[in-house]
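Input for the complex:
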Amino acid sequence: MEKENNKQSIKDSVLNAIKSGRAKMLPRWHFVLKGVLLAIGVLLLAFLLLYLVSFIVFSMHQTGVWFVPVFGLPGWFSFLRHIPWILIGLSLLFIIVLEILVRRYSFTYRKPLLYSVFAIVLIAGIVGIFAAPLHRGFFLSMRFGGKRPPRPSIPFLDNFYRSFGFQRLDDVHRGTITEMIPAGFVMENFGGETSTIIISSGTRLLPINDFEVGDTVTVFGEENGNSVQAVGIREISD
Amino acid sequence: MPEKTDEDIATDVQRGDAQAFGTLVERYEDKLIRYARRFLRSSDDAEDLVQETFIKAYSNIKGFDTKRRFSPWIYRIAHNEFVNSMRKRSGKENISIFDFDLLFPHPVAKETADDKVNKEELKRMLGGYLEQLDPKYREPIVLYYFEDMDYGEIADILQIPSSTVGVRLRRGKAMLRKLMDKLN
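Predicted:
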């Protein structure tokens, strides 16, 4: 009897709430909008993540940091010291937010978290590496020594590219050989500054061949004044 | 004339037949109250929470995809309602937001014919000790043994991987057995 009363009361209460307007059916567009906003959020975040990861790879190419691990343990130390950790931290934050958003879809939450995180990291890494050269055009068109015709400056973006892509590091240097000298060569970086690179018998040259004017190289070694005592030099394809 | 499915009735409600919602309330009321009583330690507010679940379901019915099953959808709303109520009663229950069980893949133990035979027996044994179990393990046990849901449906209700459902059921059962041994 009591059960019957309860039953009656819940059904009646719900129908009364509907009748009185306390329970209102949300319109279809509300759910469509929610779905669209979620999809836009996912796409936007994915784009930002790919942009950021490709920029990280680009900036590491640009400064030469990407190439220094070939010089052994000291190269690895230098690599870890100069990685743009702030941008990597920001990428991780994007990955976490992206993961939270995509877990609203059943194809994601039905699989272990590790799978979707791994998929996001893998896609971001692969696309990042392949899309990194796309930043080069924008970088070269900036007004600080690029060889392409300058374009009107874009305040935030130019600063961003300048601070990460045009960093001068104490032990990693990238540039183009402008002159061969008996002690080594003279190198010009993207900003148009020149340095003298001293090659000694202990300098590791990769690949082992003769450098010539016009080659783009990464030099690993401490800068002293205007010259660098090279620990290692690696030729890189431009 | 065959009885209308839940999904057909939901379509009628979406088209504006509010009275049809009463049929859905009738079909799910007992199930949801039973779920609430087993999942929540205190059953004082089970009816209120179930009523609130139906009101929320009505408000959101246009967001229900009638090509999918209605049952996991309404249980999902009930789950959210119950978990929110547990969180409000802070200190009494510990519902974690993140769980390492969700992180790694686990081998999925298939549901076998043996399971079905053991299910009835286990159901009788487990009932009395359920409330001493952590909600994380209690809920899949309630849904699997008492609400007769399969791994996929539980995964949709709790929005966790199917393999995690299996792991929680296995761990939950082991914990209950330990508890039963200890108390007997």
